[in-house]
Structure prediction request, 235 residues.
Amino acid sequence: MDAVRQLIIDRVNELGTDLKAASLAMGRNHAYLQQFISRGVPVELKERDRIALATFLRVEEGRLRPQQAERLNAEPQRSPKPERPKADVSYPMDVNWPTRKVPVYGQAAGGADDDGRFILNGNKVADVLILPGLEDVKDAYAVYVYGTSMVPAFKPGATVYVDPSRPIVAGDDVVVQVKMDEHEPPYGFVKEFVARRGGKLVLLQHNPPEGQDKTLTFPIDRVVAVHKVVGNVPR
Prediction:
């Protein structure tokens, strides 16, 4: 096993977390890092993925570069103190923590089914610090997770970050804005993208409420937007 993959395994164990949580923190499918380590797919991590993963693992981003990993990972590394996240103590000096904030949109939909829907009509409810790697994304935003329909991927109250400019493929987590009724504001949903087919948007929910299937569909003409989730912060 190469130095990058061994480092990921070691740091995940040291932090008491797992590959699934690390993958989701990168804005990837829950099995992304498992495939990277066990199957070698992809061969190496993209820059944006390295930045997000380095932040999650609290290591220098260079330690996740194949060209530098053997040398850097052999050097003694100072362990950070996760309870005091100061850049000059808890994290390597070359990590530039963003100061930009992004809006959080959406509010709870009173009386709605527990399918995670929330009102997404453009009203801002808060501002939060942006994730590393999103600083230059002009239209980045965040939403809160409502309900339990996406547990264990996303728990209620988690903040998910969205990059509207990123392309979407099957298996990506997304924020979907849907106009359910002409006389109601549009609703938002955090789900897993499956496909666009037969005039419908097909989504997946991991833990559907009683009476609902895991597969959720909406007519395409009711869908206002589908945007890629690129990271999340648990509540």
